[in-house]
Amino acid sequence: MVVAGHYGLFALAPDGTLVPRQDPPETAGPDLMGFTVAGPRTFLASGHPAPDDAGTPNPVGLVRSTDAGTTWEPVSLQGQVDFHSLDAAGTSVVGLDATRGLLMVSSDGGRTWQERAALDALDIAVDPSDGTRVLATTENGVAASQDGGSTFRSVTGSPLLAFVSWAGDGAVYGIGPDGTVHASTDRGATWQRRAGTESPPQAITAEPGGRLTIVTNDGIHRSTDGGATLARIA
Q1: Entry pTM
Q2: Using CA atoms, how far apart are residues 160 and 151, in angstroms rounded to an integer?
Q3: HSE-CB of 68 using CA atoms within 13 angstroms
Q4: How far is 154 from 141, CA to CA, in rounded Å?
Q5: CA proximity to 165, closest of 234, 130, 107, 213
Q6: Rounded alpha-carbon distances, angstroms, from residue 125 to 12, 20, 52, 90, 213
Q7: Pairing label, strands 141-145, 153-154
Q8: pLDDT 10s digits, 150-205
Q9: Nearest Cα residue to 45 out of 89, 5, 100
Q10: d(CA 80, CA 74)
Q11: pLDDT tens digits, residue range 130-165?
């Protein structure tokens, strides 16, 4: 398990401590404002250079690591775009440009991009089985797109969520600003309330079978039952 933060990427050790992934480990890494897993040992990220990195454009645009976060290489949009939210499904990548409040979509792994809807959202998630389906967390609840992010509509009756993640088995999980977990089994059309955390959330990641990992202001929590129960692991 890895955790992206403002000072680089960290791996969670068995004893619950966070171990820096960057090389050398004692240095501060890049500010990873946006981060997603694109494949085995392959990560995509965006944000700002490390404090002592004067040679990298700011913002970094889209960068890729193929060694589980030890090193990074530029992909596109260097010095132009700061994605505060990223998600990938195969070769499809969606990113939320924090500077312009604009959703951007790539069909070739992030090398080239198309501008889509203007979107005032905190987080986005793309359906792993269908790159045209995108969910976003807005101040009015969940917004959904079925045309690759060109248009969005508010989901009636949806909860107020901060972060959202699509599991590989079709389920969707989100967490509200108050730490309450919500689950959907119909692509985000309806939602069920689950357990919650005491501290405000910073991220949620969903995997098939109801396995959730939630990062909050004071720790890391895991669920193996779709958010019905949560256990702190760090």
Answers
A1: 0.94
A2: 20
A3: 10
A4: 7
A5: 213
A6: 24, 26, 32, 13, 15
A7: antiparallel
A8: 999 999 999 999 999 999 898 999 999 999 999 999 999 999 999 999 999 999 99
A9: 5
A10: 12
A11: 999 999 999 999 999 999 999 999 999 999 999 999
Going from the C-alpha of 70 to that of each of 22, 25, 43, 55, the distances in angstroms are 5, 9, 10, 18
Q: Which ranges in the chain belong to alpha helices (H)?
A: none
Q: Kindly state the greatest CA–CA separation across the chain.
A: 49
Closest CA to 145 of 105, 91, 86: 105
3-state helix, strand, coil in the chain (%, to 5): 0, 50, 50
Cα–Cα distance measured from residue 94 to residue 131, given in angstroms and rounded to the nearest whole number: 9
In sequence order, which residues have a C-beta less than 8 Å from that of residue 112 and are 6 or more positions away?
Answer: 76, 106
The residue written with tokens 């959730």 in the block is 212
Question: What amino acid is encoded at 147 in this protein?
Answer: D
140 Ramachandran zone, left/alpha/beta (phi>0; psi -120 to 50): alpha
184/174 Cα distance (integer angstroms): 9
**For 182, which DSSP code?**
E
Give the tens place of pLDDT for each residue, 96-142. 999 999 999 999 999 999 999 999 999 999 999 999 999 999 999 99
